[in-house]
Amino acid sequence: PIKSLASVSVSDGSTVVVQPFDKGSLQDVEKAIRESDLGFEPTNDGNVVRINIPQLTAERRKEMVKVAAKFGEESKVAVRNIRRDAKKQVDKCEKDGVSEDLCKDKEADLQKITDGYVKKIETAIKDKEKEITQV
Questions:
Q1: Number of domains within the chain
Q2: In a designed cystine with 18, which of 49, 51, 55, 115 is the match (CB 3.0 to 4.6 A)?
Q3: Which domain holds residue 42?
Q4: Phi, psi of 129 (to 5 degrees)
Q5: Which pTM does this prediction carry?
Q6: What sign results for the dihedral spanned by CA atoms 116, 120, 121, 125?
Q7: Which residues pair with 18 in a beta bridge?
Q8: Adjacency order of strands within the sheet including 49-52
Q9: Do both 64 and 127 map to the same domain?
Q10: What is the rounded CA–CA span in Å between residue 69 and residue 91?
């Protein structure tokens, strides 16, 4: 995480300043920010990395909505992967002699929990889209 490598501050309303604790990691921090899908172009003055945050145009807002949707989809995939792993554990227990009814109940509970978290993620994505597109 960036907080473990550097201090992050906002110098004015449109500039974020990242000051690494170790000057040797300055290039790595700059590279990580540049390669992120956020579309920022950091500048390095030898001591700190400055990130100019552009004003949000309609086009930029659409890009940010796409990024938020992408993160949401990745989150839903992660939840489904956790469900798959948990289902494997339930199936293993069933093979080890746990009653079939109990296993089916646990699978149903697992599906309810998964559906709940997927709905929370979808709600968060919709809320974030509203926030981003609001002028």
A1: 2
A2: 49
A3: 2-52
A4: -60, -45
A5: 0.65
A6: positive
A7: 8, 49
A8: 6-12, 15-20, 49-52, 42-44
A9: yes
A10: 33
